[in-house]
Amino acid sequence: MEPLLIEGTPKTPSIRFEADQGLIEIKGRSIPENSIEFYKPLVDWLDKYGEGPSTLTKVNIQLEYFNTSSSKCILDVFKKLETIHKAKHEVIINWYYEEDDEDMLEAGEDYESIIRVPFKMIEIVD
């Protein structure tokens, strides 16, 4: 399966989805003009990946900021990962947040309360 690699911009996060490594990374800022359009290839890729995922899927989310429309799309990504997890495949979500960023920590905890996938909160200390 082809990896999904998208270069980050000031408004969109960098994306690195690599099936052969079981690695999914979203890093940066997520304030795209059209969140649904930006996140659709990610959700579609996860649909295909879900047909034959790695034994372990490691998800690294390291967002500085995301807007409300992105939060819904990120939830859609997590729901696809939850489906993979429910199919008895191991999925671990590493949620990174800056040490003083209470909002980003809370956002991760909110997702963790909705999605039945193990989350690991990882504080980034400068």
Can you tell me about this structure?
The chain is an alpha/beta fold. The protein has a single domain (4-124), classed as Transcription Regulator spoIIAA, CATH 3.30.750. 37% of the residues lie in helices and 33% in strands. The chain contains 3 helices and 6 strands. Strands 1-2-3-4-5-6 form a 6-stranded mixed β-sheet, with helices on one face. β4, α2 and β5 (90-98) form a beta-alpha-beta unit. It is globular and about 40 Å long. The chain starts with a strand and ends with a strand.
SSE order and pairing:
Layout: E1 4-6, E2 14-18, E3 23-30, H1 35-49, E4 56-66, H2 68-86, E5 90-98, H3 102-114, E6 119-124
Helix pairs in contact: 1-2
Which class of secondary structure composition applies to the elements?
A: alpha/beta
* Fold-level CATH name: Transcription Regulator spoIIAA
The backbone outline, from C-alpha atoms, is globular
The count of DSSP E runs of length 2 or more, i.e. the number of strands, is: 6
Query: What is the number of helices?
Result: 3
What is the architecture at the second tier of CATH? 2-Layer Sandwich
Distance between the termini: 36 Å
**Quaternary assembly:** single chain
Rounded Rg: 14 Å
Q: Report the major sheet.
A: 6 strands, mixed
Estimated helix fraction: 25-40%
CATH class: Alpha Beta
Mean pLDDT value: 97
Percentage beta strand:
25-35%
Strand order of the largest sheet: 1-2-3-4-5-6
Uncertain regions: pLDDT < 50 for 5+ in a row?
A: none
Number of spatially distinct domains:
1
* Order of secondary-structure elements: EEEHEHEHE
